[in-house]
Amino acid sequence: MHIYIILLSTMLYVYILKCSDDSYYTGLTNDPEVRLLQHNNGSNPKTYTFKRRPVEMVYCADFTDYNQAVLWEKQVKRWSRKKKEALINGDWDLLKKLSACKNDTSHLNKPPFDSAQNGIVK
Hints:
CATH class: Alpha Beta
CATH architecture: 3-Layer(aba) Sandwich
Low-confidence stretches: none
Number of strands: 5
Order of helices and strands: EEHEHHHEE
Number of domains: 1
Mean pLDDT: 88
Distance between the termini: 82 Å
């Protein structure tokens, strides 16, 4: 009796496609090359990329942890176009700047506190 063990790849990839209309599509796959072909073949007319072909893969990051991959995909999907482009271009300084909190209540928007004066520095 022989026992065969099949090892399946647990690698997942979060990818960004640039569509022919210059929009971006973010997705998750276990095979980026096959997924790119599927997008460009347009097998499902109801998908976002169907009428935006051809598409080009402009970003791809690999993950061994399924949960981390799903979280990263969800996060990137919520990002603005500028943040996605900073990620695609590897511009970490711009990405950090674009990610900074800009709310009025942010600690970055408050004047410094001077404990010696027991109040706010003017």
